[in-house]
Amino acid sequence: MLIELNNLGFTYMKGTPLARIALRNICLTVKEGEFVGIIGPTGSGKSTLAQLISGLLKATDGQILIDGNDIAGSGKNINGKKKIGMVFQFPEQQFFETTVFDDVAFGLRNMGCSEDRVASGVRKTLKIVGLDFELFKDRSPFFLSGGEMRKVAIACVLAMEPDILVLDEPTVGLDEVSKKAITDFLTFFHNQGKTTIICISHDIEEVSKVAERIVVLDKGELLFDDKPEKIFLETDKLLEIGLDIPDAFSLLIELNKKGFNLPTNVFRIDDVKDLLIEYFIKEQKARGYRD
């Protein structure tokens, strides 16, 4: 197992009057190459979990095993062989170089790569995120569109070729076109290789478009861990904790309440549309209608 969390807990300002428990008794495993979405309402502990997995916070309880190496007590992946890259919420706020090239190149240069390796790495990574090297390399990262900024921020992490990519709210603050561009890229990127992706989000509909599996957190505890279509069947509980379910899936549920007998193993809008078309064609034929 690539990532294994055993009774993981984290308390901010532990041992002080201001102590606040962010996570408690989290048990979770992630296989190599998996795409896992971690969702929850504000304050559920999902961003804290992302920082613990990335080695940016030191666990106060339990174990974090990355490729068999326990990093919980160190706050770093000192002994692990797997490289972890994290894309923070609003990562464009961390730009500090004057050009896109230099921002994406920073991590490679920090790793001691030659300038030839840096140049090829930047070119390759910008292509991966869908940005033309010649058009963007000399532009200021501060004067790009929101979606372009987010892609550059992701490129900064991808350039270092992490084995595990952790994204904290990668589509937050973006318009619908930019959101789709990011989710399309993540789907494409995941299908190209074996990078393990963990995507943190409060938006269950967005993350369900890309993740193979969804983990739901609430008040620092693990509530559900299953395939998206199984998670969405817990409609009442999701609504109770402040999460929504995809509109297309809600339509199936409502139609079934009206007496239809529709399967609930799909949730993406195109799949639901195809399902409904197929269903009504069959119904028409069963009632003797002809084209």
Can you tell me about this structure?
With 291 residues, the protein is an alpha/beta fold. The protein is 38% helix and 21% strand. The chain is built from eleven helices and ten strands. The chain has a six-stranded mixed beta sheet, sandwiched between helices. A four-stranded antiparallel beta sheet has the order 2-1-4-5, with helices on one face. Strand 7 (164-168), helix 6 and strand 8 (196-201) form a beta-alpha-beta unit. Helix 2 (100-110) crosses helix 3 (115-128). The longest helix has 18 residues, at 269-286. The protein is globular and about 70 Å long. The model has no long low-confidence stretch (mean pLDDT 89).
Q: Could you give the count of β-strands?
A: 10
Q: What's the pLDDT, averaged over the residues?
A: 89
Q: Which structural class fits the helix and strand makeup?
A: alpha/beta
Low-confidence stretches are: none
The geometry reads as: globular
Q: Measured on Cα atoms, how large is the radius of gyration?
A: 21 Å
What is the makeup of the main sheet? Answer: 6 strands, mixed
Helix content: 25-40%
Order of helix and strand elements from N to C terminus: EEEHEEEHHHHEHEHEEHHHH
User: Beta-strand level of the residues, as a percent range?
Assistant: 15-25%
Widest sheet: strand ordering: 6-7-8-3-9-10
Q: How many helices?
A: 11
Distance between the termini: 54 Å
